[in-house]
Amino acid sequence: MRGRGASVGAFALTIGVVLAGGIALRPVASAQSAAILDTTPTEDATASVSVADPVAVASAPTVTVAEILPTPVAAPASVVFPEMKHVWQSLNNCGPAAVVMALSTFGVDANQEAARLALRGPDVRRGMGPQGVGPWVKENFDLRSTWRNGGTIETIKALVANGFAPMVTQWMQDPWVSRIAHWRTVRGYDDAKSVFYVNDSMLGNMVPLSYEWFGRNWQSFSYRYMVIYKPEDEKLLNAIMGPLSYEWFGRNWQSFSYRYMVIYKPEDEKLLNAIMGPQVSDAVMRRDLYQRAKTEALTQNTNFAWLAYGEAAYSYGMFEEAVMAFEKGLSMGSPNGVFGLRNSYPQALRALGRQQDAERAAQQLNNISIVPSSTVVAPPDPYALYLAMLRITPFEQIPTE
Q1: Per-residue pLDDT tens for 98-144?
Q2: Choices 2.40.50, 2.60.40, 1.25.40, 3.30.70: CATH for 281-392
Q3: ∠ CA 264-268-270 to the nearest 5 degrees?
């Protein structure tokens, strides 16, 4: 990825991170070529540069330039990809099959078994997480992949309307029918019928799923979705998915608790504090998902909603709330198939220092997933611990090493 020249700030700052550069923008019209729309597409918006007001300090201020993202096509009433391959999956291979179907919208005819070995490995009992997809599509097809939690019906519609084929993790069928976690690829939608059309490796081609069913069976998986895209479409994708940092940047920064350092003049301290507000994108995503899941648990009052609230609270470092939500969800119904619970519930207990309770919970949940795991217990999510520490520790006492 080629680097862009950094804009000059209103004062002399040295920031202790290296920022990845941008990629040339895709014209909005090209996003429409992959899908059929029933309305006339909007014209490209002319990018303009806004200039920050001068700062009232002795030093002469300069211009701060904000990055301009392209304007996505507004989602029309209905959209469908005219061409998307459908494949029937091999054993436990819904993830690679969904990736193969999404790749077909780029004209790539990928092999399901080659994808299986790359994305799942030889153990047929294992499922596919989203983390390995990006390196594989980059190496083999010069494409990129990103994924997020906290997706919405509107986000999925906007992605499809702009020529992206998102993949989602949901229950394959209603959980009272079967508890099978499943990847499927969204091919289109129709507001008049309130349905998404999906290419599903178990259910078929152009399968209609109501918006209500889609959202309800997505909830247990934190509304996770994944998108494969061309490098030149990254800014358009970011415009749709919200102001989140580039996938590579965030992934390679996360292990260091998103730490950054700024050198500044004494007279610029107030301005710096105004800039350095709560702006870490991953923290914002975790917070928003936590707030959403908590509201849904209180209003829907189902075991799946409470378990999803527990996952979101754990990810946000609210460990006591996570334990409460997990225990309420477990008391209301079976957790079978909610595989994240197997790690998150014991980890929340460990984060609270309740080691014996954590061991009992791990034994209780041992049969939720048949996927073999490491014999070494993983530590609690370090970023969730960091967020929890920020809420209870004065800023001056936060360790710097």
Answers
A1: 999 999 999 999 999 999 999 998 887 788 888 899 999 999 999 99
A2: 1.25.40
A3: 120
